[in-house]
Amino acid sequence: MPVFACVIVIFGLIKKVPVFDIFLKGAKEGFQILYSIAPTIIGLVFAVDLLRASGAIDTLCSLIEPAAEFLGFPPEIVPMVLLRPVSGSGSTALLTSLFETSGPDSFAGRVASVLAGSSETTFYAIAMYYGCIRIKKIRHTLIAAVSADITAAVMSVITVRLYFGMV
Hints:
The protein has about 170 residues and is mainly alpha-helical. The chain has one domain (about 30-165). The chain is built from 8 helices and no strands. Helix 2 (about 20-55) crosses helix 7 (about 120-130), helix 5 (about 90-100) packs antiparallel against helix 6 and helix 6 (about 105-120) packs antiparallel against helix 8 (about 140-165). The longest helix has about 35 residues, at about 20-55. The radius of gyration is 21 Å and the shape is elongated.
């Protein structure tokens, strides 16, 4: 990274660009964007923490786990399937916990790994990108993104079964 930064500065000096002034302008724009999206991100983080602390996620998981198991999903990944679209750090903590309890080479561990690598923090991304450009009506984005998250969960199970021959 230091070499990359030096190359940019040297290239800017060769082209006679006021490098420091451009840097300051970019930093100022970055802070303005941060200021505009901060309330959305803070609200999202608050909602996730509230759901986790209240036990709502655990209750929802206990309701979904029997159906998930019937459909061939490992019940251990249900909390991650629910939390992954909302919180990347929360789902990473669940992934680590799953590795400790079930093991990374277990069916649940492999499915969770594939899910973590193939899904997105949907609600965070929508809040970040749409908040940044001040769009309030997200139209079909949410439906498409949640559909992609469900597809990622289903395909994670199918992929691990096909690739590893696990049940």
